[in-house]
């Protein structure tokens, strides 16, 4: 079974959540299935390996909130550390911050200033890639810390939204495309 097949089988669509017209992608059934979760984590970790299967990243960064669930497992699979990218006001030490536009309003993400050393190659991990705003803001945070984004790995991308515009030619690994 492929990661995409696992996701099609175990991700549940929840209509009109959190508001009317939105179809929420509930990944909790996939998280509860150990075989499916292992397959998905391995597939996401492949985005942090080169063509020879060797690790090509120094860290995994996961965006709040579901990137916190997937990112540490991917980091362990790659044998690297994990960095949480938090919503504003959640980190206790000096931070870099980037604000970005949401569909309705604005949000700010933060990371500790010492999160990635100069030259560190980072894999970004999250669940859904929609407009690309969160991922773009995280790219800016990696760069502010002296690192370089090697790629983005997500469970699924929403093909009907303009995420590619926000990420340009950055390598993106998506395990499933939702049309």
UniProtKB/TrEMBL annotation:
<comment type="pathway">
    <text>Purine metabolism; AMP biosynthesis via salvage pathway; AMP from adenine: step 1/1.</text>
</comment>
<keyword id="KW-0660">Purine salvage</keyword>
<dbReference type="InterPro" id="IPR029057">
    <property type="entry name" value="PRTase-like"/>
</dbReference>
<dbReference type="GO" id="GO:0003999">
    <property type="term" value="F:adenine phosphoribosyltransferase activity"/>
</dbReference>
<dbReference type="Pfam" id="PF00156">
    <property type="entry name" value="Pribosyltran"/>
</dbReference>
<keyword id="KW-0328">Glycosyltransferase</keyword>
<dbReference type="InterPro" id="IPR005764">
    <property type="entry name" value="Ade_phspho_trans"/>
</dbReference>
<dbReference type="GO" id="GO:0006166">
    <property type="term" value="P:purine ribonucleoside salvage"/>
</dbReference>
<comment type="similarity">
    <text>Belongs to the purine/pyrimidine phosphoribosyltransferase family.</text>
</comment>
<comment type="subunit">
    <text>Homodimer.</text>
</comment>
<dbReference type="GO" id="GO:0006168">
    <property type="term" value="P:adenine salvage"/>
</dbReference>
<dbReference type="GO" id="GO:0044209">
    <property type="term" value="P:AMP salvage"/>
</dbReference>
<keyword id="KW-0963">Cytoplasm</keyword>
<comment type="function">
    <text>Catalyzes a salvage reaction resulting in the formation of AMP, that is energically less costly than de novo synthesis.</text>
</comment>
<dbReference type="InterPro" id="IPR050054">
    <property type="entry name" value="UPRTase/APRTase"/>
</dbReference>
<keyword id="KW-0808">Transferase</keyword>
<dbReference type="GO" id="GO:0005737">
    <property type="term" value="C:cytoplasm"/>
</dbReference>
<dbReference type="GO" id="GO:0016208">
    <property type="term" value="F:AMP binding"/>
</dbReference>
<protein>
    <recommendedName>
        <fullName>Adenine phosphoribosyltransferase</fullName>
        <ecNumber>2.4.2.7</ecNumber>
    </recommendedName>
</protein>
<feature type="domain" description="Phosphoribosyltransferase">
    <location>
        <begin position="47"/>
        <end position="157"/>
    </location>
</feature>
<dbReference type="InterPro" id="IPR000836">
    <property type="entry name" value="PRTase_dom"/>
</dbReference>
<dbReference type="GO" id="GO:0002055">
    <property type="term" value="F:adenine binding"/>
</dbReference>
């Amino acid at each position: 079974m492929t990661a995409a097949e696992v996701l099609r089988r175990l991700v549940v669509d929840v209509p009109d959540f959190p508001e009317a017209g939105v179809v929420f992608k509930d990944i909790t059934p996939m998280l509860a299935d150990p075989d499916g979760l292992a397959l998905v984590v391995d597939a996401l970790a492949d985005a942090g390996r080169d063509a020879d299967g060797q690790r090509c990243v120094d860290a995994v960064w996961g965006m709040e909130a579901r990137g916190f669930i997937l990112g540490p497992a991917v980091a362990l699979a790659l044998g690297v550390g994990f960095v949480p990218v938090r919503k504003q006001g959640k980190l206790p030490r000096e931070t870099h911050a980037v604000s970005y536009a949401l569909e309705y309003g604005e949000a700010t993400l933060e990371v500790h200033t010492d999160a990635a050393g100069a030259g560190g190659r980072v894999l970004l991990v999250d669940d859904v890639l929609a407009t690309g705003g969160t991922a773009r803001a995280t790219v800016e945070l990696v760069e502010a810390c002296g690192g370089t984004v090697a790629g983005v790995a997500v469970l699924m991308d929403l093909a009907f939204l303009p995420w590619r515009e926000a990420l340009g030619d950055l390598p993106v690994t998506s395990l499933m495309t939702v049309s």
